[in-house]
Amino acid sequence: MRNTAKITTAVLAAGALTLGLSGCGADSSATDGPLIVAASPVPHAEILNYVKDNLAEKEGLDLQVKEFTDYVTPNTATQDGSVGANYFQNKPYLDDFNKKNGTDIVPVVTVHLEPLGLYSHKVKKADDLKSGATVAIPNDTVNEARALKLLASDGLITLQAGVGNEATPSDIAKNPKNLKFKELEAAQTPRSLDDVDAAVVNGNYAIESDLKPSKDALVLESPKNNPYGNFLAVKKGNEDDPRVKKLAKLLTSPEVKKFIQDKYAGSVLASF
């Protein structure tokens, strides 16, 4: 039961959001009303709020940003119409989510990459991890596989040939340091750093925790041919919503690229 409690809580939260928005009279499906976008706080909501404050009015876009700290509710809220779009995830994660939940959410435009990194409060280099060290990794299917691939890229482990985006510790072929793995909700991984020897942390959660991926990571994903770019997504059929098209254009504008470069200094990379 890796995520049952989390998903149940998130679904209930999505239902509460639906009621809350209904009570305010907001209708995310009305193409002439505000576009409500669900987003992780950092960097997604920050980027959206930059667009809202500096670019949206000129394009005639009424943009509203709703922040969520988990990786489930933004999709359930998009599927049920509580929000008109979301911005927080990558394609392997979305494919897995749609398959498991019967949803039909689709990407619109890729905006940025948050490199996944290995961090530690106890060692300065990955090679310094001792035999039997405990490493925290995200427990959702795609990010767990992504974390294991990151460790494999640095030679800390070897994965069995052919494993894809559903790899788990049971798919490890070689583990020369006899590393032990602690599977946690992705948001909890940076908070575990005082309790484990190292942790693999998603870029957004690293930044929220004052970690600087470009400087602090012992091992960091390469952006080259990386399939984990984060994108604006909508429920299938809403891709041609004029509000969504306006936002997609603004999210891939030169102004947003400069904002990402200036604010995140290599910890978040524009993908356009």
UniProtKB/TrEMBL annotation:
Keyword Lipoprotein: yes
InterPro entries attached to this UniProt entry: Lipoprotein_NlpA (IPR004872)
Cleavable signal peptide: 1-26
Keywords: Lipoprotein, Membrane, Palmitate, Signal
Keyword Protein biosynthesis assigned: no
Pfam families to which the protein is assigned, alphabetical: Lipoprotein_9 (PF03180)
UniProt membrane topology term: Lipid-anchor
Localization per record: Membrane
PROSITE patterns: PROKAR_LIPOPROTEIN (PS51257)
Family: Belongs to the nlpA lipoprotein family.
Name by which UniProt lists this protein: Lipoprotein
